[in-house]
Design goal:
Transcription Regulator spoIIAA; globular
Length: 126
């Protein structure tokens, strides 16, 4: 299975999913006009990845802005990861937020309580 690498743009985040290490990373702004066009590729890749996943999957998200359409897709990805965790595959999510960014912090809190996965909220200073 190949890495999934997508360069970030003004409206879509950068993606770097490595099936060998199990390190999945998304960073940037997520405000695509049609989030399905962007996120469906990620979901398909994750489904394929879980046919032979790494021992532990680490999902790092460092998003500076997320629109409502993207938020829905991210929740879907987290639910997929939760399903795989329930099947015995370990996963940890690291949600990075900038100091004083209440919106991104609150969104991370919402996901953390919604999906019941190991979910770390990590503050950083820009």
């Amino acid at each position: 299975m190949k890495d999934l690498i997508i360069e970030k743009t003004n409206s879509t985040p950068g993606v770097n999913f490595n099936p060998t290490t199990g390190h999945l990373k998304i960073e940037g702004r997520s405000i695509p006009e049609n989030p399905g066009d962007f996120y469906d590729r990620l979901v398909e890749w994750i489904e394929q990845y879980y046919k032979s996943p790494a021992e532990i999957t680490r999902f790092d998200l460092n998003l500076e802005y997320v629109n409502s359409g993207s938020s829905k897709y991210l929740l879907g990805i987290f639910r997929l990861l939760k399903k795989k965790q329930d099947e015995g595959h370990q996963c940890v999510i690291n949600w990075y937020y900038e100091e004083d960014d209440e919106a991104i912090y609150s969104l991370g809190e919402h996901y953390k309580t919604s999906v019941k996965l190991p979910f770390n909220l990590i503050e950083y200073i820009q």
